[in-house]
Amino acid sequence: MILRWIPFFACLSLSVLTEALKLQKYLEWNILDFQFPTDNDRVKNIVTGRYRPENALPVGIEIWNDKLFVTVPRWKAGIPSTLNFVPLFSTIKNPPLIPYPNLEANELGNCENGLSTVYRIHVDDCDRLWVLDTGTFGIGNTTQNPCPYALNIFDLQTNTRIHRYQFRTEDTNSRTFIANIAVEVGPTCDDAFAYFSDELGYGLIAYSLKEDTSWRFEHSFFFPDPLKGDFNIDNLNFQWYDEGIFGMSLTPVLENGFRVLHFSPLASNREFSVSTEILRNSSKTEDSYHDFYYSEERGPDTHTTSRLMTREGVQFFNLIDQNAIGCWNYRKPYNTNNIAIVDRNDQELIFPADVKVDRNNYLWVMSDRMPKFLLSTLDYTESNFRVFFAPVETLIKGSVCEIQRPIENNQHAIGLNNIPVPNCKFNRLFCNRQSEYLSLFNEEVFSAG
Length: 449
Hints:
It is built from seven helices and 26 strands. A hairpin with a 2-residue loop joins strand 14 and strand 15. Helix 2 runs antiparallel to helix 7. It starts with a helix and ends with a helix. The N terminus and C terminus are likely disordered.
């Protein structure tokens, strides 16, 4: 089959190949729905105003085995559950969100046992889900804080919360707003650290699971760029000029045993970085100015809110101004020559809010039209929220982000042998979906030829 395709690759232009390798739409909602224990419970919640579908916006995603997690912040009233999942094996494209671990655990204002508002989440290598509850309700000037910031860790094998840590008073300030989390695990599951970006309070909080304590860094690199606060997205012009440190990613472990944390303020086009050797050391909070570094700018219209780095060192990040997903191979200098766009779609990728890579090396993207939801009105007769996926190696092939490897057989240099093989024991979906994806790839190639 691969040999049969080779002549067609020889006659394809780069633009045609790029078209064939794009993200594939997996889920799609006009408006979100939630699963309730019974139909009577659903009706009761609608009548009482505890459930208002038009007020729900999906923001964060994460993937673990047969679950796709979806977070829904409580920016407005009527959100029954802030942490949810949908089955990856769903037979429909718009499945209802299932509260995780259950509806009771998502009770607003239940500080000890509930979750008030969750944004982005992280699954680690020890099958744990790291969840930061901001303890808030509302957004902007309407924000209320019924509960403190608290980290919750769930065991995904048992669907139970195994740890809760409430942030210290010194970790936050009157402006604090934290949406992003990055997690690294050391030689053992107890040897884990988490990092939280304080977007409006302009700080970076580090947490040690083993010591069960946290500490806060402050730096001028966490502040927004005063010249980069103007945004044009989805035919809307608005200003997010006070948005500081936001998206974060961690490199693979380096020779010194540590990683590098990369980050950007939202109102900025520049990348910054710091070694986790510094962040893990609580004594460095007052003396670390020269331990942080900056890189060249990404170029105009490159605001980003979410990023991650694969195990092989390819960083993916959303480009919210361009309705696009970008990439960078950390083995190369950070500059415009080494940054590529793996996909852009001005209709379906409007505000790609979150990006994640699963254990099978597939990239997942959630788009949600957030600016229109916050500043205008969504039309719920059309599709508003989408989830896409594609193999990482397929997306970066032929770009400056591609990982260069020795080629044992030239026959394998072109075609589908570069697409990673999924673990079918735990992920039947990917076995089926990879076949579906490759069939689509086949159709694109032959129709182009």
